[in-house]
Each structure stands twice: as structure tokens, then as C-alpha cells.
Amino acid sequence: FCLPCQSRSIRAIARSAHFDVVLIGLVCSSQQDSEATHYLLRRLGVDTNSVESLRYRGNGWPSGIQIKTTYGKTLVIPNGGSLWTTIFHSRLFIQRKCFWCQDTLNRYSDFSLADPWIKGYHDIEKYGKTLFSTNTDCARTILNDATIQEYITATPVSADILVKSQLRTIDRKMSYKLNPRLRNAMAYVFGSRYYRIFATCCPLFFKIHCKVVRLLESRMKSKLETI
Description:
By secondary structure, this protein is α+β, with helices and mostly antiparallel strands. 45% of the residues lie in helices and 12% in strands.
């Protein structure tokens, strides 16, 4: 399994060592560093030392972060419409390289796997079917064998469905590319430890930061729409 920013390197290393590999790639919006989780715990009033276990997925779909504490309390923060969603999309905790990434669908892997983030779909899907594409002949052979031998059940869908499920991310990354100065400024400022301390020192400042991000990304997206 690999992220889009890893697939080409992993394949190159494997080939140079004369290994055959099958890369199962995840689509990716961005990768959060550990401070995102620490900030969530702080906002929830949970002491890091009291966390017995923490899961980001599981127990259905779209699921959410499940925090179990040593004093017997369990918290579940949904993956949509929650404080965690706001933190995830704040761009404050993402890896710096994510500002330059243009490969959302992991096109250099054999398989690309995606959550079906399509309007209305998560209202009816509770277990979590996975959208996927086969990007190589190797992947298509494996898929054919797996379905014939009933290891998996797969239903063909239009390629547009996969793109549609990730369209907001694809558009955002393209808008970053078309606005390099603004993108670079965001990466520089948001990557500053001093700015991060300032933006997270109280809920109000974090809310203001998120509003600024929305305004900046709306401005960048307007340029995308005029092309």
C-alpha cells in the first residue's frame, strides 16, 4: 500500500533491485502530521497520557476517530461535519509537500483505491464499498482472477464516478498550481511553528484562520473557473 507521493519511488527502488511489486495506491487529499491529532485531543479536553487507543477508521463507513481512554470513556468524532473535519481541512497541519502535489488518484500505482465521497452516497452506504481503478495490465489480470475465483465482488462503474468522488481535491490542487505565489505563501506561513502556535492558542483564532483559508482557496478557485 502506498500514497501517491510514494508510488513512483517504491516502484523505481523495486525495479532496481529486480523485484516485482504490485502497488495498491490510496487516493490522497493531504497527509496530516501528528500535531493535528494532538490539537484535536486538546480541543476535546482529553489528556494525551489518558488515551488507551485511537483509531481513525473502522466500525462502518464513513466512520470517524474513535478515542478510548484509560478511565473508560469512549469518544467518537465523525469524519464529516465535525471538529476533526475542520482541523483536517484547515491546511494548518498538512505536510509541506502536500501544497505541491498534483497526483490525487495515485496514477503510478497498479490499483487506485478511493472512498466514495459522492453527495447522497454516504446516506445509504454504511459498510463502505471501495471505488477503485486498475492502472496497469498487471492490475487488470489480478482483478480478473480475483473476481473469477470470488475473492472479491466488483461492479463496473463509469470512470467519471471515481473522478467525481475526488473532484473537490483535484480542483483544489489544480488551483494551487495555477496560483504558485499564493500557494507558496500559504505553505510558508502555515508551516511556521510560531504561526501554528498563534492559530491554535484559542478556538477563536483557529476559526479566523479557517475563514482566511476558505477565502484564499475561493480566490484561487475563481482563477481555475475562468480558464
